[in-house]
Amino acid sequence: xxxxxxxxxxxxxxxxxxxxxxxxxxxxxxxxxxxxxxxxxxxxxxxxxxxxxxxxxxxxxxxxxxxxxxxxxxxxxxxxxxxxxxxxxxxxxxxxxxxxxxxxxxxxxxxxxxxxxxxxxxxxxxxxxxxxxxxxxxxxxxxxxxxxxxxxxxxxxxxxxxxxxxxxxxxxxxxxxxxxxxxxxxxxxxxxxxxxxxxxxxxxxxxxxxxxxxxxxxxxxxxxxxxxxxxxxxxxxxxxxxxxxxxxxxxxxxxxxxxxxxxxxxxxxxxxxxxxxxxxxxxxxxxxxxxxxxxxxxxxxxxxxxxxxxxxxxxxxxxxxxxxxxxxxxxxxxxxxxxxxxxxxxxxxxxxxxxxxxxxxxxxxxxxxxxxxxxxxxxx
Length: 380
Ligand SMILES: Cc1ncc(COP(=O)(O)O)c(C=O)c1O
Description:
Elements: H1 28-43, H2 45-68, E1 75-78, H3 81-90, E2 99-103, H4 108-121, E3 124-128, H5 137-145, E4 152-158, H6 170-180, E5 183-188, E6 206-210, E7 222-226, H7 228-231, H8 252-258, H9 266-269, H10 271-279, H11 283-305, H12 312-317, H13 346-351, E8 354-359, E9 362-367
Parallel strand pairs: 2-3, 2-4, 4-5, 5-6
Antiparallel strand pairs: 1-7, 3-8, 6-7, 8-9
Helix pairs in contact: 1-2, 3-4
Pyridoxal-5'-phosphate is lined by residues 22, 80-82, 107, 109-110, 158, 162, 187, 189-190, 210.
C-alpha cells in the first residue's frame, strides 16, 4: 500500500510541515471532495441543506461512529473540541464547593473554559500535577484518583496531551469515575488518526476528538460522543430547530446538537474522504514511522544538548501506540518522547495538588494538603 508523499498534500513546497497537532494538513483529494460538497450545495442551496444534508450527515456520523467505536446516534459533529467542551461544561449544574478534577497537562483553551465555568458556579478547579516522565500507568491512575474528594463532580482528562504528547491511561479512571458517580469527560482532540480509539471499551460519559489534526479532514471537523445516560442532560449550546423539534428523529442528542443554524457542513461530510485517504495510505505505517522519527529526533536533541540519556527499555515499551490504553505498565508518549527523570512519589504529588477556589467575580488559589504554590495560570 502506498505511503503518502509531499505531492499528496497542498503544502508550500518550501515548508517542512511537522505540526499536524495544531492544525493538520489536508491531502489534495480530501480538499477536492470538500470543495465538491460545497459546490454541490451551491447548485441548489435550499434543496441541499433541507433535504440532502440530513441524509449525508447521517451517513457521515455512521462512518465516524464505526471509526471511533460508537453508535452513529451517540456521536455528533462539532466544528472543534473547544466548542464541544464548552457545550458540556455549560450543562453541568455545578454548585458552590463542587470540584472539577483535572491534571496540569490540559490544553489552554480547556483550562480557561473550566476556570470560567467554575468561577461562575463558585466551584473549585483542581489540577493534579503530573511530572514527566510518568513512571507507570498505575502510578498515574493513583496520583489522579487520590485527589478525588466527596466534592468531586467532574473528572476532566486529556487522552493524548498537547504540549507533553502523553497518552494518559484514561480507561481505568473513567471506570472508577462511573462507579463513584463522577462525570468523566475526555479530551481526545489528538487521538483520531493518531492512536486507535474504541469508545465502546472506554467507560467515559463524554469524549471529544478532532478529525482536522491527524486524520486529514478539513478544518472544522470534530465530534462529541456522549454515553446515552449523559445525552439526557446535554442541552444544546446553540438552540435551534432540533429543540422541541416539529419532526423529532430517533435521537434527541442528534436533534439538539447537529443543526446549529445555517453553516458550512462540508467539513463534517468530508470525513469519509479523509478516512478513505488514511485507509489507502498505510496509516498504521505512517504512525509507526512518525513515532520512529520522533524518537530519533529526541535522541539527536539529547546528544546535542547533553540531556540525560533515555532508558532504552522504556522506549521499547512505548515503541508504537497500539491501543487506547498502554499494554505495559508504562504511560506511553504520543508523538514526542522526553528524557527519563526520577520517579516522583505519589504522596508528593498529592501534597502539591493545586486548587483554585473560584467565586463569581473573583479568583483565589489555595493549596490542597500542602504548601502554597505560585498561581501559575495555564501550563502551556
Ligand atoms: C489537547 C487539546 N484539546 C483541545 C484542543 C482544541 O482544539 P480546537 O482548537 O480544534 O478546538 C487542542 C488543540 O490543539 C488540543 O491540543
